[in-house]
Amino acid sequence: MITVHGLTKQYGAVRAVDDLTFDVLPGKVTGFLGPNGAGKSTTMRMVLGLDRPTRGRALVGGRPVAGMAEPLHAVGALLDAGAVHPGRSGRDHLRVAARTHGIPPRRVDEVVDQVGLGPAAKRRVRGYSLGMRQRLGIATALLGDPGVLLFDEPMNGLDLEGVRWIRALVRRLAGEGRTVLLSSHLMSEMEQTADHLVIIGRGRLIADASLADVVRGGAVGQRVRVRTPSAGLLADALRRRGLRVSPADDGDLLVDGAAAETVGDVALAAGAAVHRLAEERSSLEQVYLDLTDTDVEYRVADEPAAVRS
Ligand SMILES: Nc1ncnc2c1ncn2[C@@H]1O[C@H](COP(=O)(O)OP(=O)(O)OP(=O)(O)O)[C@@H](O)[C@H]1O
């Protein structure tokens, strides 16, 4: 588990992280989202003990990483895939990291297999593609078999196969009960990968909720689109049930906050034929753009509609 409490980082006049409080729980993939410069990397660096907080604390398993003798056993991270000696082979890089942490050399072969680096592990890192560097970085993160993993933009610059591979890997790591914090700009990827989201903007917390709650709390929320040749009749019947109905550009009716079953039942009772009935949700991308649009700080509460204050 990662615990962040009142975490603040001031760089001169810039407050990169501003009083952040959230927990990252085991057994889930937590997506860490925010626009450029929101403070995601700074937060991750403080969690890893690579940067000192100005105020507040960031703990892994209840302890600061900076005080740990062999941190690779507690937490693994992929921060900057370029940060490897280019003249070393991938395997040598892993061997050095293993030796400094008292990790047996056979573990190097295990992680090389696990990330699919294969024969490339014997080649110098200088000649690695971005995808191979990412795999090596992830192998390093996994070396100490840690319970907590942080991946900063691991999908950046990867091809579709690489993105799919990372998605499957983080899901598997969370499935094993590990704590996984994953930052990404790719909302569509996050939608397919994360269970929970922590969204920040200008260093401050914007949302800390399950993916489902964040999407449900969006501006559109749940909405039913219905196509009928008796639009007037059905709209009247739905309004009598207290539902908000508006016409779409193509003549369909849009019914806010209703389930498809309700709209279907009302149509049957009113004698209106239904030619199409579909539930619509906000996409994460749309909700995210809405959320990060302002500086208003709020939490997505249990109440799905309670988004903005
Ligand atoms: N070492 C530093 N010195 C001064 N300012 C810094 C330093 N590191 C980060 N910042 C500033 O802190 C803010 C947050 O940066 P950070 O890299 O944490 O954001 P981010 O959310 O990771 O952004 P991105 O998605 O672009 O990587 C930015 O305004 C950045 O310019």
Automatic annotation (TrEMBL):
The keyword Transport applies. GO terms for molecular function: ATP binding; ATP hydrolysis activity. The keyword NAD does not apply. SUPFAM superfamilies: P-loop containing nucleoside triphosphate hydrolases (SSF52540). Belongs to the ABC transporter superfamily. PANTHER family: ABC TRANSPORTER, ATP-BINDING PROTEIN (PTHR43335:SF4). This is ABC-2 type transport system ATP-binding protein.
